From TrEMBL:
Residues 41-279 form the AB hydrolase-1 domain. One of its GO terms (biological process) is glycerolipid catabolic process. This is Hydrolase. One of its GO terms (molecular function) is triacylglycerol lipase activity. It comes from the Bacteria. It comes from Streptomyces lydicus. Keywords: Hydrolase. The keyword Iron-sulfur does not apply. InterPro entries: AB_hydrolase, AB_hydrolase_1, AB_hydrolase_fold.
Length: 288
């Protein structure tokens, strides 16, 4: 999971609920001082939330972009039903399209879409349903198909546990499996408390359904290529969910811009936010 390093919103951002035709979603909305030159919708990954993008908000706004980070249905502060079918990939993709329409009502300029990890699969599905609202798609630490085998085993264990145990019990079991460097003792207390609270707020059926998506996702790169939408593939230099060479190859197949953020792993958005924001805004500026 992404671990935010700071939970304080910058002065350019505010938290509120974004009303759409598919429901209300918790968002963090950062705006530049003047009229934005473009707007980006930021979609988090598996077990994630809008807070995973806090470190990006100020540099994106400083570059002239409005950035709206969302909690998807069943994630953290956006409630969702206790039914797995509510979290089918198509349903989540339709939510993204509704969020994009609601965001664009306020700013009619270029609209860019970004998905981190699982969010990359969901945003890809949204674009394949309807690419017309968007000027570009950025897939951040997300690959062409299912996650790699070693991570599949971990996700299967989690899905099994979620089917048998309550969320608190699963949280404690996950902490026991964490490597020593990820232990709560090495995490600032306020961040550790937030990660725990976010986990308990997340709907377990959402995690089960989206976990299965990461296990079963087909390769849809050729479909995405046919949309003609400009794509940016961004990752750290190391990734445990999708091997970096697989993202390199995906970028070639898409004729996409490729950025590797040195010094980052699966979450460049929290690990190297300034460099990540620089790469994002450079791409968005280049495609209009």
């Amino acid at each position: 999971m992404s671990r935010p390093t700071d939970l304080t919103l910058p002065p350019c951002a505010r938290a509120y609920r974004l009303d759409t035709e598919r429901g209300s979603f918790a968002v963090h909305d950062a705006r530049p001082e003047g009229a934005p030159i473009g707007t980006a919708v930021l979609v988090p990954g598996f077990t994630g939330s809008k807070e995973d993008f806090i470190a990006l908000l100020e540099p994106l706004a400083a570059a002239g972009f409005r950035a709206v980070a969302v909690d998807g249905r069943g994630q953290h502060e956006s409630p969702g039903p206790r039914e797995e079918q509510a979290y089918a990939q198509r349903e989540l993709a339709l939510d993204v399209l509704a969020q994009a329409r609601a965001v664009r009502e306020a700013d009619g300029g270029p609209l860019h879409l970004l998905g981190h990890s699982l969010g990359g699969l969901i945003t890809r599905a949204a674009v394949l349903l309807d690419a017309t609202p968007f000027r570009s798609l950025t897939v951040l630490s997300s690959g062409p198909a299912a996650i790699e085998a070693a991570q599949q085993a971990r996700v299967r264990m989690l899905i099994d546990a979620l089917g048998r145990l309550d969320m608190e019990s699963v949280w404690q079991a996950m902490r026991e499996l964490d490597p020593p460097e990820a232990a709560d003792a090495a995490t600032p207390p306020e961040i550790g408390a937030f990660l725990h609270r976010r986990w308990l707020n997340t709907v377990p059926e959402q995690l089960i359904a989206t976990g299965r998506q990461m296990l079963e996702e087909p390769d849809r790169v050729a479909e995405l290529s046919r949309t003609g939408l400009p794509v940016h593939v961004v990752s750290g230099a190391v990734d445990y969910a999708w091997p970096v060479p697989s993202m390199d190859a995906m970028a070639v197949r898409l004729s996409a811009r490729r950025t590797v953020v040195e010094g980052a792993e699966h979450s460049p958005n929290t690990e190297r936010p300034e460099k990540t924001a620089e790469a994002l805004t450079g791409f968005w500026s280049g495609v209009g």
